[in-house]
Structures are given as C-alpha cells and as structure tokens.
Amino acid sequence: MKILTQANILPFALLFPALLFPRLSFADAPEPASSTETTRLAPVETLGQRSPEVSPVDLPGSHSRVDLSADNAGDHQLEDILQQQAGIQVRQLGGRGQFSYPSIRGASGKQLQIVWDGIPLTSLNNSEGELPSVGLSALGSIDIYRGVAPAELAPTAIGGTIHLRSKDHFDTPASGHAYTSIGSYGYYSAGVWQQYQNNAWRFFAAADWMEAENDFDTKTDINAFNNPNESSTEKRLNNAADHRMALLRADYTGNTRIKPSVVYQYQKKRRELPGLRNIPQNDAYFASEDNRLSLRLNIPYSQQQQTDIITSVYTLNETYDDQGDNIGLGRQKNYYRTKGTVLRINHHSDAGNISNLLTLSVRSETTESDFALISDATVELNCLTGSGCPYDYQRRQYQLGDRVSGHINDAIMLNGQLSVVKFSDTQQNHYGISDQRANERFTTGDAGVNFRLNDNNQLDVLISRQVRPVSTQELFGDRGLTEGNPDLKSETSKGIDAVWRITSAYGEYSLSAYQRVRDDAIVASADSRGVIKYQNLAQTNHRGVELNMSIDLTHNLTLNGNSGWHRHTIAEHSRDFFVGKRVPNQRTWDNYYSLTYQHGKISTSLAWLLQSGGFYESSNRLPIGEKNQIDWNIFYQLQNFRLQFNAFNLTDNQLSDFYNYPVPGRNYSVKIDYSW
C-alpha cells in the first residue's frame, strides 16, 4: 500500500480545523437549501434559479451541481470545469479542444452517459464517452451523478452521468451576455447569449465558437522527424481544433393547460489528428456535425399529477480522414451517418408524503458507414471474405422505469428506483449476407435512504445494481478494425455509497465513501493483424473516499476544493498475471483547491491541481507521473464590462494523459465580457 505523504494528507486535514473553528455554531446556522452540495466557482450574483424538474436532490448518493448561471467560469472549457470536481478525471489528448474523455470513479468512457437538457448525447450504437462541444454560454449548471442517475435520464450508466443544463428562469424581461478571448498557441474564442420573456413566451439563444492551433513546443527524443540523430524541440504539428455550438429554445408560459417547449441543439467540430511522430505532411482529421430538435409538452392534471412528453430527432455525421496513412491504421476516408429518435413519457404523482415517477421511453438509432477510398468491387470482396465491411447498425432501446420517494418522518426519506430495459440489435449486411440480430433484456435498480440527523447534518446511504449493455461495435465489429463477439455478456455493477454532509454558517462540507464491483468487464485485445476483439475477461473492484468543502474564510475570501483517494484494481482476469494489478489510466490521489478573493470591482483566484499514482497500462510497468499545476486569474469589473487575465499551468507541468502524446505547458489568455 502506498505510504501517505504530507501532500496527500494535508487536504483531508483541512476539514477538522474548519469544524472546530471557535465561532462556528451549528445551532445558529441557516438550514441547507437541499441535500446536495453545489460547487461555487466565484462569489458573483446569480441571475436566476433552476426549474425543479430533475436535480441531484432526487436521489440519495454522491451527487452535486456545479452552478454556472452567473457566467463566472473564467476562460474555461467544459473539460476544465469537470476536471475540478471530486472523483472526475478528464484524459485529454493535448491542447484546447482536442479529444477529452471523462472518467468518474474509475469508469471507462463506455460506462458513462452524457445528457443535455434531458436529451442523451451519448450514442446508442457506439460511444466512448467523449465530451461534447457544448460551450459554457448556453449552460446554467452541470449535474454530476457519480453512480446512479435518475431513471428518466440514464438507466444504463454504470459509470455515472453528466447532465448539462441550459440557462433558464431569468429575473428580468430581457438580458444578454457576450465575450471574446485570445490566448497562447493560437487560441481564440467568442460567445453570446440572449434571453427575452413576456407573459406568454420565453426565448433563449446561445452560441459559442472556439479555435486553437495548439502549436506548442514539444521535446522530441532521438529518431524525431526533423532531427533523427538527437533530441530537439519542435512545434506540435497537425493538432488544431475548431468547435462551434448553438442553442435555440422557446418555452410557452401562457394560460393554456398544455405548455410546449421547443429546443434546437447544434454542435460542429473539426480536430486534426496528431501522430506519434511529428510529421509535417500529416493532414489527418476527424470532423462531426450534430443536429438535435426536441419538443417537450408539460401537461398538468392537478397539483398532484402531471405528465411530461419529450420527443427528439437527431442526426450525427462523422468523417475520419487519413488518406496519407499518417496515424498508422492504413489509408482511410470513412463517413459515418447516424439518425435517431427518442420518445419519453414521464408521469409525476404525489400522494401525501409519497411521490412517484413512472417513465416510459423508446429510442431508435441507425448508423450507416461508407468507406470512400475503397471501390465497390473491393468492398463487396471484403464483405464476402470477412475482411472488413461497411455495415449498417440499428439499435432500439425500450425502458419502463419507476421511482418512489417517501418520508417516513421529518428525519428519514426513502428512495427506490427500478427499470426494465430491452435492446434489439440488427447488423444490416450487404451483398446477400444474412443480417445478424441480437436481443437482450435486463433489470437495473437502486435503493437509498437520507437521514437528516439535525438541521446541519445529513447522511445518505445508497445501494445499487446496474447493467451496461454491450454496444453494437462490441457485438458485431465496426469500421474494419474490430471483430465482433456475439457471445459477449453485459457488464454489471454492484455498489454502495455513503455521504455525510455538513452545513454551517461558514461553509459546506461533505465526506463520501464508495465501494463498487464490476463483473464481466469487457476488455479489448488486438491480434497480430491489429484487429481488435472484445471479450469478457475481468472483474474490477473500485473503492475510494472523497472530501468536498466550500468555506467562507472571511466576507471577501472563499476556499473551494476537494480531495480524493481511489483504489481501482483487477480482481479477476483470464490471465493470472493481471490479477491484483491497478486498472490502467486511473489516478490514486486527486486534489483541487481554489482560493477566491473579491473586493469591490476586483476579484482574483488561485487554483491548485494535484494528481498522482496510477499506470498507463494493465501490466503496471509504466507509472503515470505527478500532475501538479497552478492556475491564476484576475477580474476587473467596469460597469457592464469585465476584463480578465488568466494564467494556466504556471508550474509548466507537461505530463501527458496518453503515453507518448505531448501536451502544452504554461499558457495565458485575456478575456473581455459584456453584459446587458
């Protein structure tokens, strides 16, 4: 076991002096607003309150909300905000806007679900849990479920759920906000949002654009492209990113009983694909365009009963272009087109101290592929010989779920969820080859209890059993690089979570502990041809402790932060060598703390991120180094303008989340905001 060091113990020790602060009095402290903590990014006035549809307070457990409603997130992207939260690690390929994969408490990307305003962004057919291109202009808050999510959001997410929530419920008839920023390594961004409301309608529009060349300096070893006989420093090539996002929403708030809401969500991104070698001729890229149109109908029957009907249609077009074979997977230019529909009906009912939610959903998705560099004759030959075929996939998901919450008395609340989920999969083959089909049905559920010990102390305990279905990529194979395995079993997760929350006149604290066992873990392995095959090879154990705190040290000085210790191990494996090894790409310790000072028109923050422990691969022979970064920013408010200067990674730490892929070091940005 790793020996505890002063740096690791210090964040946990901060809890106890705060609790023993001589002037702190639990009896005089205000009653907490909810049973979940809210991360405050800066002490800036909030513009509104959120609609109480689905929130972390609906479930006992380690859930939290990050408040972004006051546009006070600095010059950060979505991945930066998530990296600051307890239990979340975000692996980034290198540079702003490049590929980012969040992991919650040791979960893989396929075990994670990402939802935007109740509409799933995670693909049914195949998803690695990559973060979407959602700009912060549109967001009012982020709900983080570190295990079980509400049944109406993500019934199959055994690795947690991230719910992105747009701005809503403003206090003035009309308001807006705009910003622009410029920074190191060819970084530019701009964004705007505008809202208008009257007695009958409420309109909201937001847009964000971000571009980064990411041409930072990187140190290369011997055998580099420009200096093959000695190490050197070069500019990182073919590493740019371009992201664009838009959101349009119209809500009817008039006197009719049925209240419709229409939402249009748009994302477009293009990212260059850097190779292991810094080759100037590399022009590989990955591009995608995502369009989603949703209609929501709220139908109240009485104060005790109402129904929400949500329907959504979406298209996702993706392009993988490496015609020069610079990445190493052969010459390719492939197109992938996904079309999907979602229909969900949620019925809410209350009876005395008991509330109930019944949810029914049907989701259908079709993915088509086209290998543009391969002739029709070659495609037919490859399909008939099993050498890679542009299959089409169709997956349907049916869910029937229920949640019951009830107060036994003023101190105890019970909560339970149960969902039955069925999948129907079809691989639509070509050239006379028979289609392949698969069907699966399973049950997932959880039960929790919230104890209100007194006005300032609450304890949550949650037990759960969840299932993550096999994706169509794992089941049938995909993109000419993976071989399907129709005998795969779904992954299952059994866990227990406990959370103790404390609220005082000077701050909020929470201490969480979790234990989770994942069975039939799906592992990918490559043969001598480089073709990947999936197998149920392992059982993994996950346990950890997390501390969250938000302390008002003085009227002007606030401390926010969290620390976590995690142990993710392989408990069973088909090869005995891996038993007892750490799950790769997972940290042992993670810490994030920010100190914010505000006086008059000036506000400044100093943030510290420390991550340590873990290995790059399952054999545990390549340890991940320590990531130790310090960020600093300063704001100046001048009437409706706000000027800010941001310094990131002042320690110039260039530790990579992906082995042998360089990342930028110290960088800066300047941002101007204007509100009206």
How would you describe the overall organization of this protein?
The longest helix has 10 residues, at 376-385. This protein has one domain (6-675): Beta Barrel (Maltoporin, Chain A), CATH 2.40.170. It has a 22-stranded antiparallel beta barrel. Strands 1-2-7-8-5-6 form a 6-stranded mixed β-sheet, with no helix packed on it. The protein contains 5 helices and 33 strands. The protein is mainly β and 676 residues long.
In short:
The protein has one domain: Maltoporin, Chain A, CATH 2.40.170.
Structural class: mainly beta
Strand content: over 45%
Instruction: Characterize the overall form.
Output: globular
CATH architecture: Beta Barrel
Main β sheet profile: 22 strands, antiparallel, barrel
Q: Determine the CATH superfamily.
A: TonB-dependent receptor, beta-barrel domain
Domains, number = 1
Total count of helical runs of at least 4 residues:
5
What's the overall average pLDDT, rounded?
85
Helix content: under 10%
Q: Report the uncertain regions.
A: 1-36, 42-52
CATH class category name: Mainly Beta
- Count of distinct strands: 33
- Report, as a whole number of angstroms, the end-to-end distance: 55 Å
Rg estimate, integer Å: 25 Å
- CATH fold field value: Maltoporin, Chain A
